[in-house]
Write a structure and sequence with these properties.
Oligomer: single chain
Number of helices: 9
Largest sheet: 26 strands, mixed
Shape: globular
Structural class: mainly beta
Number of strands: 32
Amino acid sequence: MKMRRVLFVMFFVHVLCCGIVLAQDKPENTAAVIERIYEQMTSDGETDVDLTTLEDDLNYFARNPININNTNKEELGRLQFLSDKQIENLLYYLYRQKRMQTIYELQLVDGFDMFLIRNLLPFIYLGDMGEKRGKRLSFSKLMKEGKSELCLRSERTLEKKSGYENTEDNAEAEAAGKRYLGGSEYLSLKYSFRYKDKIDVGLIAETDAGEQFWGNYHKGFDFYSGYLQLANFGKLKALVLGNFRANFGMGLVIHPELNFGKSTDIMNVLPRNTGLRKSSSVDEYNFLRGTGVTLRFGKAEVSGFYSYRFIDGDSTGNTFSSFKTDGLHRTLSDLNSKNTISMQVFGGNVNYRFSNANLGITVTDTRLGRDLEPELKPYNVFYFRGNHQLAAGVNYRFKWNKFTFFGEEATQSVGGYALLNGFTVSPVSTVSLVALYRLYSKRYDVLLSNAFAEGSKVNNEEGFYLGLEVHPVKRWKITGYMDVYSFPWLRYLVSRPSNGYDAMLEADFMLNKKVEMLWRLRYEQKEKNQTGPETTDFTDDYAKASLRYKLVFSPNERCVLKSTIETNSASGRDHELAFGFLFSQEMSCSFRRLPLSFDVRYELFDAVNYENRIYSYERDILYAYSVPMLYGRGSRWYLNCRWQALKNVSLWLKVAETLYADRSEVGDGLEKIEGNHKTDVRALVRFRF
């Protein structure tokens, strides 16, 4: 009966939405672009990606689109779904043709297909070449044209988790770590003021579910953040105060922000060198706190930054064994590890532009308030230990004919080196290729690095990656990659040197504006320790193959229907082959006379073994990202709504529920829920003024 009701509701909404045939103000909205970019970046769904900066930029350009006839590389670079090669091709076309007369000319730019143009259209317009980018700034102009935004967000799980259960003595249970200190509500506040692309100010406050907001152990929000960013004032390219991020080179020395890595967007394989940027995220670990400045001197740019902040760690005396990066302070033990380690970072970068090349040097000096001393294990013998680390790297990029070569070479003070080199080439306009070689020595372990890698750390790895994108005929796009890698030393749960490989092939077909299809095949094989009644130090090959098919149908411009089928197979214990399955049906609709839009999805999954788990991206409220792991047997549905209540007031609401058919409780420990279902509710209200 429950299944029939769900199907009836979905059919009713489908019929309702298909009857609405009207044009949209924009061909695509930001949420749709975010969804496609995320799915491109994380072909397996397991990568944890913070898209806050990307969404900030896309929301800004949706309200203040780029004049394609009066733009530059730096501005286009903030549209992070554009690769460096695509930006160069667009600027070269504009240089050659002087200006674009019609938006349809985008199809004439090398490397621009229908799929890319669709992502780009919401954020650009065709204006005059001589259009002024800005006039002299005054306080009255700042107050008149500046835009403020205030977001209030709350969420909670409707079912009671064991960590919130009352006991005979709550204080005793909290002291013993058997009960959370706070309530079950998540709360956050985010304020920002922005004047064009020149001034950006923001304040952020957040309390996670389970953290105490007001009580004996803590008063107020658990996390506070603030920033000020000035950009493009004469020789001053950027000035940041407060929380910020520094992204230089290929990520071997420092790059805490967005990293595409292995994805279906094969030409965007490397991180974007965005320099100094504000940190508007609620991520409590990946940021710097202090100040930084970038100055222009002709073809040279010089950056310097300083950060001093406290981070979480399990400290004993003058040492600590590891960083605590989840930002959660729900128990007394969590609070005791909060802000116990000071981290001081000095850094700088010099970048020089030649006619067809770039050359940069990055240096960081990191000092910890206590010695980092991980518990000695065979796999972490070469991990960084101590309280002082100096790292330096040289990055380059140059063009030769149809080739673009890039790379970075880095080293650190306690020994070890890292090499990352590659090239891209487009022999013809319909074919693009990228090759990448990496060699990270087992002694290289830089705390702030974040580069292309199979492992979770930039060390103990050698690999070769080859990616290909082909447009064989109109409306078709074929992408694929092959990554072969090895680990010269032991790893966690791998008790000997090991190797593996990862391959992906995807075909996209756009029949017309109404119908689009996707096929994706992925295969991965790597070594892990054998499992059984007793733990052994012998490794064996474990493989996983997955196949996804997605159909997108738009009966009209205000309604989109999506059907997804995914199946996988994985070898687990004793080489037994297990299978996983997902079927998903989704609708996204908006109305003409109602300022309302919504997304609704229902999906069935069967992945009894953990190795067969499936990740599925979901639309969410503003500045929230959801990629639930579907593991077990059951179903999941969600409803995500956006209502433009007033001209400057918007509301979001999301309800999601997972029902399991193979268990009587969900989660474990303090997160355990008695019952076979879990329901989450999120709400956000945004004021613009």
